[in-house]
Amino acid sequence: MPLWEGEDLALHTSLLEALDAAKIPYFNKPLSIYPGVRRADPFPVQPLTQFGYKVAVLESDLPAARQILETLQSEESTDLELEEAPESPAVRAPTRPSSNEEPTTEIWRGEDESFARFLQDALRENDIATRAEAAPNQTVVLVRPSDSPRAKEITRELTDASPPL
Question: What is the pTM of this model?
């Protein structure tokens, strides 16, 4: 019998742990991922897969499982409220470099023109002014000196394909 269906991963995990602890067997399946499902429309408005889970239990265990679910749902709703924290006067908005500062610091040099364009787009998304110069068989990407530390970190993340330090 269906017990619960939804996208709340925390509730889903808590429910499965509570059912295990109560030794109630259950059936757990991701939503909309069923073998052999096909759509007649090759370009559907709604995607076939959606995030979420469906949990079902035996009919004989349904009353006990519903009690567990109701308890978890009442606990989850109390945990959602956050305490109001006082604003810290020490937090300031980052200072913007002067608008007359020119991109003169080199942060990347290479032969891959498409990566140079991608890097410039990524830097602009982070409000970092860039300029590219053509060198013999290479492209050089320049930024403002005040943006250099952030720009170098973004460049490192992209070239190493690694998260921020």
Answer: 0.41
